[in-house]
Amino acid sequence: MPFSLFLAFKYLKPKRSVTSVVSVISILGVVLGVAIIIIVRAVMTGFGDMWQEKILDFKPHITIRSFAGGVIHDEERVCLQMEQIEGVQAASPSLETQVLIENRRRVIPALLIGVDPERAKKIMKLDKMRSGKFDVSGDAVVIGIDLAMQLGLGVGDDLMVYSPMNLVSQDEVYFPERLTVKGVYESGQRDFDSGYVITSLAVARDLMGMTSGVYSIHLKTDSPANFEKFNKIVKRVEEVTPDFRVQTWQEIDKTLFNALAVEKNMMVILLMFITIVAIFCVTVTLIVLTVQKTDEIGLLKALGFSSRQVMGAFVIYGWIQCLVGTLLGIGAAYLVLYNLQSMVDLLAKMGVEVFPKAIYGLARIPWRIIPKEVVQVAVSVILFCTFGSFLPALRAAWLDPVVALRKE
Asked: CA torsion sign, 260 to 266 to 269 to 271?
């Protein structure tokens, strides 16, 4: 065994001294710093994954609109053209408008989406129907669970939908539509569960004073997350429809994902300071150790051991502390993440709501660990630890053996 490694292990042996206590505290500091960074990055990654999943399930992968924002009158022809493109699973015409929903004198604004009853089932993934079924034929309507609770609605109840055209048309009056709730869905995302009303194209056209046409064509593809293949599909759609504006789900919700990425990076940078503070503790431990071992260092150098060997012993000492702390921190992060939802549920039973859906918009805490990010955290900690170990190690290496032995 190299002398530096032997000496480092010798100093690491547990002893009933202040140095041993400080060493344990330093390792615990590294454990907490590493674990917190990994947990935060995993949760932020999980948020991005879940929002992407909800968006891709509820919203279209590709949206086709008129360049001038006008009406598309030949929607059936466009849908048939899109369905012939390789990779496009379904196409559905859509008519969206803001409306007011009223029930028992309670009024809530919502986005009404008029869809083709048969085509929409292939676009919107609403498998989790809380009650009823996905039926928008005739005067039927499907609403989210949060909107149903706010208005006190259930399957079979009627609601009134008021047209926004009354605000822009001075010569005509648009009467409200009485619709029947045929289904209540639960997507697990607050915005979708509280702000959307789905009905037929005929009802939406009546509310908008239209006899034909739609505002957009929605497409669902077989590979929305495979960007290389997805971009090829988008390019093909643009070639087939040069007179229309083509938007992808990344473009429509770009602000959300950009904000999430910035927040994740800022959280990691801020939390990295916790690890740096923990590494300062390792540096302090080494400084205390070099002061306590001054006479021993002097004796070793007097016996002929080189400054590099002495310096290497203290650097390895710091490395071992950080390596142990990093490994324990990674293990602690995995342990916490695998039991995260259980911990949250337990706190909720005790009356402490740490993850309310009303604030975060999701039903449960999502998380996903990216191995590359774990490696980045581990390497960063080891690098910081290396720099933190050099200062006390240099002091030990430069120590004059005569001065050290005189201290004895």
From this structure: negative
Cβ atoms of residues 286 and 312 within 8 Å: no
**CB distance 213 to 76 below 8 Å:** no
Give me the phi and psi of 144, to 5 degrees please.
-80, 160
| CB atoms inside a 10 Å sphere around CB 358 | 9
Single out the residue of 92, 86, 55 nearest to residue 72, CA to CA.
92
One-letter identity of residue 309: Q
Instruction: Please give the single-letter amino acid code of residue 95.
Output: L
pLDDT by residue (tens digit) across 223-257? 888 888 999 999 999 999 888 999 999 898 888 78
Q: Are strands 216-221 and 196-200 parallel, antiparallel or unpaired?
A: unpaired
Which residues does 402 contact at the CB level (< 8 Å), separation at least 6? 298
Give me 30's structure tokens. 């590294």
Two tokens at 26? Answer: 């330093």
Q: Which two tokens stand for residue 13?
A: 């042996």
At 246, is the secondary structure helix, strand, or coil? strand
E strands of 202-269, at which residues? 216-221, 244-248
How far apart, in whole angstroms, are the C-alpha atoms of residue 115 and residue 204?
A: 8
What the block records as the tokens of 129 is 């129907």
pTM of the prediction?
A: 0.73
Residue burial 142-153, b: 16+ Cβ < 10 Å; e: rest: bbbbbbbebbeb
- Please say whether the beta carbons of 157 and 143 come within 8 A: no
Contacts of range 374-379, beta carbons closer than 8 Å, 24 or more positions apart: 374/38, 374/330, 377/34, 377/37, 377/38, 377/41, 377/326, 378/34, 378/326, 378/330
- Residue 195 neighbours by CB distance under 10 Å: 16
β-pairing, 140-144 vs 177-185, is parallel
Tokens 């699973």 locate to 89
pLDDT at 300: 75
Give the pLDDT mean for 296-317: 79
pLDDT digits (tens, 9 = 90+) for 17-75: 666 777 788 888 889 889 988 998 898 888 888 878 878 888 899 999 988 768 888 88
Phi and psi, residue 184, nearest 5°: -125, 115
Q: Which amino acid is at 201?
A: L
Q: Is the dihedral of CA 334, 335, 338, 341 positive or negative?
A: negative
